Amino acid sequence: MSVINKYYDRINEIMAEVWDKEQENMEKAAQVIADANEQHRSVFGFGCNHAGLITLELFYRTGGMVTVNPIRAPGMMLELSPPTMTSEMERIPGYGKIILNNEPVKKGDVIIIHSVSGRNAVTIDMAECAREKGMTVIVVTNMNTATSVTSRHPSGKMLHDFADILIDNHGDRGDATIKLDGFEQKLASSSTVVGAAILNAVTARASEILWAKGIQPPVFMSGNIDGGDAYNKAVIAEHKDNIFYM
Length: 246
Known about the structure:
The protein is an alpha/beta fold. The protein has a single domain, classed as Rossmann fold (3-Layer(aba) Sandwich), CATH 3.40.50. Helix content is 42%, strand content 15%. The protein contains nine helices and seven strands; from the N terminus they run ααβαβααβαβαβββαα. It starts with a helix and ends in an 8-residue tail after the last helix.
């Protein structure tokens, strides 16, 4: 069996474990996001570096919620050279609070924070700051990793310590999934694939909850099909008070 087969099999195993063990927390997250939209609150997403890919998956995406606002800050999205600088920057205490204090967040808003390890200072500071502001904090993390490493935050706490709703992505320790005989380092991470599936399912469920109440979900249409641009323009205009990336 090639590593292609092994990787797909492992991803399917992880996804099955997520669906089996995380449905209740995913439902809670969907309800919170639906409530925020219904109450004209704002939704934000954040992750450092590769963890931030999940935020980009939710943001400005066909079928995704128009009202999900990405938090993008200098040094947090692999935009620097060398990229090793970004790994150092996500360990800087206090930077997460600086970032969030410069976002238009308010009490009652929702923030989704993704981190595989949950050990670095920026995400921990951001989650702590969000709780202080009265936001609901949804954390997606890898508890196999997070419970096997120490915190890099001065408090000694981990990201999941600040979660109102915790969703475990059930990935392997360190995120990589496939072992080659005789080669120590495992291959092929799972967190982006699984994290995207988790949060696409959560936001889709939030839209379903809204629709069941007779509220039109604020969802993007593809701009590459006829009528898409006009549809998106109208949805953005309707929700402009909760959109901060345009």
